[in-house]
TrEMBL record:
Taxon lineage: Bacteria, Pseudomonadati, Pseudomonadota, Alphaproteobacteria, Rhodospirillales
Subcellular location(s) per record: Cell membrane
Species: Ferrovibrio terrae
Protein name: ABC transporter permease
Protein family membership: Belongs to the binding-protein-dependent transport system permease family.
Entries under PROSITE patterns matching the protein: ABC_TM1
A biological process from GO: transmembrane transport
Leader sequence residues: none
């Protein structure tokens, strides 16, 4: 097992992608920042200074504490506290975990749906292709945030307020996923139209392999490169969409931590002087999205054979 891992690591170090990665300091910094966000988010129960959502540990007298370096600040609250006495740094770590989880699962859902429909459209062609692409064209005429709000609103009406709050994360994942599947479907369809006429696909047909098996086993692995690039960039877009929906009050409820709900809570006190309650979560969101976008841009260039 160890020898196999060592062999994979040796091949990775000898690859063009690794060479490109190690020669780009900005990308290495972006990867380090993104890794820190993931470690801080998913290690929050162990790494966070406080548990801001443990009601038994909260003290209202700690509310509105400024950052530690300002007058009135305390070292135990590095970025200050909010109106409930919750440590801002800890809320960012816990909130990032929710935002990243929603964003990642939404991308997986959108990617699965888009790849499936793209394969069907490209490989089957005809009426199936025309129908799927016309649906995609119609959806492209609406902003993604509007699609997500529409799906969320319809679900809220069907489930009711109480059940919607209980299933808020699932509804948010589906809403965001349905907003971004079109990019995957159109990309996969275009790649499939090119690949299905190549000799290896014709050979698979000659030996009698069924169409679905050819599409999944032979065509799909050859179209995943562009899909991975889209998924990386869409992770940042999904996190922003979640934050926007939660900020507008149609995403996660205020009782569930996310970067969007933290910014929404903090903006109520921005004009009264407690700037840190919204500025630090907003800065964390901006840095996270920028880092992921830079990684996506680098990956797109690294996987483009014309730029090698």
């Amino acid at each position: 097992m160890m020898s196999l891992l060592a062999e994979y690591w040796r091949r990775a170090r000898d690859s063009d992608i690794w060479y490109s990665f190690t020669r780009n300091k900005l990308v290495m910094v972006s990867a380090a920042v993104t890794a820190l966000f993931f470690i801080g988010a998913y290690g929050a129960p162990l790494l966070a200074p406080h548990n801001p959502f443990d009601l038994a540990s909260l003290n209202l007298s700690d509310g509105f504490k400024p950052p530690a370096w300002e007058e009135g600040g305390e070292p135990q609250f590095l970025f200050g506290t909010d109106d409930q006495g919750r440590d801002i740094l800890s809320t960012i770590m816990y909130g990032s975990r929710t935002s990243l989880s929603v964003g990642f699962l939404a991308v997986v859902f959108a990617m699965t749906l888009g790849i499936t429909l793209g394969l069907l459209a490209g490989y089957m062609g005809g009426a199936v292709d025309a129908f799927i692409m016309r649906v995609a064209d119609v959806q492209l005429s609406f902003p993604a945030i509007l699609i997500a709000m529409l799906v969320d609103g319809v679900t809220r009406g069907l489930l009711g307020a109480d059940k919607h709050s209980q299933a808020a994360i699932t509804v948010l994942i589906v809403s965001i996923g349905l907003s971004y599947w079109v990019q995957y479907a159109r990309t996969v369809r275009g790649q499939v139209l090119v690949e299905k006429n190549k000799e290896y696909v014709q050979a698979a047909r000659v030996i009698g392999l069924p169409g679905p098996l050819i599409a999944l086993r032979h065509v799909l692995p050859n179209v995943l490169g562009p899909v991975l690039v889209i998924a990386t960039i869409n992770l940042a877009l999904a996190v922003i969409t979640e934050a926007t929906l939660s900020f507008l009050g149609v995403g996660l409820p205020p009782t569930q931590p996310s970067l969007g709900t933290l910014i929404n809570t903090g903006q109520q006190f921005l004009l009264s002087g407690e700037w840190w309650i919204t500025i630090f979560p907003g800065a964390a969101l901006a840095i996270l999205v920028l880092s992921v976008n830079l990684l996506g841009d680098w990956l797109r260039d690294a996987l483009n054979p014309k730029l090698r």
